[in-house]
Amino acid sequence: MSDLVARTGRHQQRYLDGCRLVAGCIPFKYREDDSGESNCKKIVEVLMINSSSGPGLLFPKGGWENDETVEEAAAREALEEAGVRGVIMKNLGHYKFKSKTHQDECSPEGLCKAAMFALLVKEQLNSWPEQSTRVRTWLTVPEAAKNCRHPWMREVLEEAFTKWHAGNVLNSSEDTLSSPDQP
What we know:
Blueprint: E1 15-16, E2 19-32, E3 42-50, E4 57-58, E5 61-63, H1 70-82, E6 84-98, E7 111-124, E8 136-140, H2 141-147, H3 151-171
Parallel strand pairs: 2-7
Antiparallel strand pairs: 1-2, 2-3, 2-5, 3-4, 3-8, 6-7
Helix pairs in contact: 2-3
């Protein structure tokens, strides 16, 4: 059982122009390539969790609340839903989607706008707030793309994350990957 508690309710939820504002991230880490085909090559893996409302995997995300920055909200969702802590490395952009489960008086159509980030995982907890309803799975980027439940999340992974990560690896040393982008 986790001593940490997930936030619940909508009383601090942010909305803009009829859209519920959401924050999320693609948690990632590196592992050694154990295929024997390369010299000390590191493989990037991303962390996905099961959906609480149906089949398929997704990235941690949830409501952005009035008392936190969007980056704090993304990091909080990673902790609550996936049990990981890390460093926000890159803003991957904003993505609109329609939620069937979050239609309410502030967003009757269920429209949401998600700010998504790359989060370099520094710690994976054994106990976290939603562990009784969430299963976490580390996957390579191609595996994650195949298993991603939502097309908009697949777009974040394949377009924004993959391009940022490839550019970051090609243009910098691995030390740079342990430091967030500077504004």
